[in-house]
Structure formats: structure tokens, C-alpha cells
Write a structure and sequence with these properties.
Blueprint: H1 3-51
Length: about 55
């Protein structure tokens, strides 16, 4: 095989990997961010009395 064809195939593989990673993040990110928001709000609710802050909501 010629070097150009190998480069082309490698670029195609890299592109497909990048696309699959991005689409995977697209699916995972909302779930993770919801969990992080829940965790952060729970942590804030627990920490606020210690810090003397009033929680909103």
C-alpha cells in the first residue's frame, strides 16, 4: 500500500474515533452534569449552616 492511502485510512479512523467520543460525551454530559448539580446542591445544603449562609430554595 502507498503511504498516502495509509495516511488517508489513519485520518479516517481518527475522525471516526473523534466523532464517537464527541457523541458519547454528548449523551453522557447531561447525565453527569445533573448528578454534579445534585451533589453540589446537597453539599451546599450541608455546608451552608456550617458557614453561616442561608440556602436559597
Amino acid at each position: 500500500m502507498k503511504k498516502g492511502m495509509i495516511d488517508c485510512q489513519r485520518n479516517r479512523v481518527i475522525a471516526s474515533v473523534v466523532v464517537s467520543v464527541i457523541s458519547g460525551l454528548w449523551i453522557v454530559t447531561p447525565v453527569v452534569s445533573d448528578k454534579l448539580k445534585q451533589t453540589a446542591s446537597i453539599t451546599l445544603d450541608k455546608m451552608a449552616p456550617l458557614l453561616g449562609l442561608k440556602t436559597v430554595g
